[in-house]
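TL;DR need structure tokens for one chain.
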Amino acid sequence: MVESPMTLNSNEGSDDDDWSLTAVVHPILKQKVESPVTLNTNEGSKSPMDDLFGLGQSPEGCMNSHPEEPNMVCVETSTVKRDINFSPQSFTHDGHSTELMTQAEHDDSKVSGVCLTDLFTAEQIKVHLCSLNPSLISINAGKLRGKMTAPNVGENTCQLCVEEGLTFAAPAISCASCGARILHNSTYYWSEDGMGARYCFCTKCFKGSRRGIISFNEHSVLKATLNKDKNTEDSSEAWVQCDKCEQWQHQICALYNSEQDIKGTVKYTCPFCRLKEIEEANIHVPPAFGARDLRRTKLSDHIEHRLFRSLEQDRKLRAEILGKQPEEVLGASGLSVRVVLSINKQLKVNRQFLDILPKESYPTEFPYKSKVILLFQKIEGVDVCLFAMYVQEFGSECSNPNKRSVYISYLDSVKYFRPDAKTSTGVALRTFVYHELLIGYLEYCKNHGFATCYIWACPSLRGDDYILNCHPENQKRPNSNKLVQWYKKMIKKAKAENIVVGSTNIYDRFFVPSGESNSKITTARLPYFDGDYLSGAIEDIIQTIGKNGGHQMTKRTFKAMARNSDLSKDILVMEKVDS
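>> reply
TL;DR here they are.
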């Protein structure tokens, strides 16, 4: 996306130590256009967490700042490859997982723990069943109360959704060398290492590699050892049979998690039989572990409180417009904001990048905090991940140009948010919520001394996804202009609250001379982020210059640079990026 810098004010506060709540999936690198956002900072604040932890780094991954600067906080990033539905599994506060329930020591009438419906109340089971098969409402006289009769279906039909086989898009395959997605029906090459990990390579990288070797992530593999294949895999939903009524259902319809029964010894009870047990035997349903039970942080609390406060204010405004009481107006419910990953990382600068700046003191590495922020909504008894954001935070311990900056590297959502309503100003409630999440995060960063935030605003192509593996077919994908406008509206709202005090784009900030003494056009001023498109593009340009040598410098470039005829790599790179 387009990158724009923002400035923040700093207040006291910090957050928790490094921790990880979810497994990190391989990051997907996408091309984007960068736009920096500048935040106004008030100097001189000190985090009370410095004394509490007494370590070289503060919670939320912030590095302890110099005495003359406010403490910095860093954001967690991670990659989530598909929509998240929580299985009956619990997390302890230290991030380790523990089973809620197994079959051992439990009889058939109790919870087996292999599907979410084991933890549903009778009313929740009925809502779930009717969402899969709306005809159940008419079958049962349009009421959710009372007994619900299971439909009679054929042996090849799911009893829950009354459909036969379900076919899903195959899992995404990305090239290990260039990061590009290998499209369906495309030819690719692959190999496995001694640990069983598979590395795939697109045709372009295979044919473009020289000396019979393909390099990736500081590793290399012989082309002669690669297997050739075609991406034609389709994924069919697995089935499960109820141990009571012996009917077959899709695992996804039953909210069944086969990973909870790897040995295949746990008995499965379908929603219809489970509903009958609850109603006839008056069984106590244990409380279900959900998104609200995930570990809270000061960051998640800050964003969540702001979101709830803003939603309540808007609901009251809509009620006034409609002449109703607030409780009579449809509002969003079941929302939870959680930070599910927060870890410290070291970003090493590529040697090719450093080689073009022999006379500049560009850092060789940047310490930062990587975080992942998720928004959940409980829909029909299940916590669904609607929104995900990966962030990199660089504290005051970092050297320039990354010092006191935040990088929002990935942002993704799925259109399952409820209700599908408008705010008092006519904006979609879904958009309102996502803007509040971003503004809440920027406000939190402002309170912790960050000065600049960089945001990418480049939409993914259809069939190509950033974080969440699949998106609904009815979900529109904005073009670049619309996405940039979407972010500008968010920034405008943040400016009105004095959270953001200025914004620009990457070109105006780094490629247009401003007459200031420290604004010379050089790669030494460009920020360097993990997986960033701009730094990756510059490294590609450096390789091209190395192969082709220098090219004719334009007079406009000489004038803009206020330089003579020193055809350095730095000038060549900046001119190439500019073009």
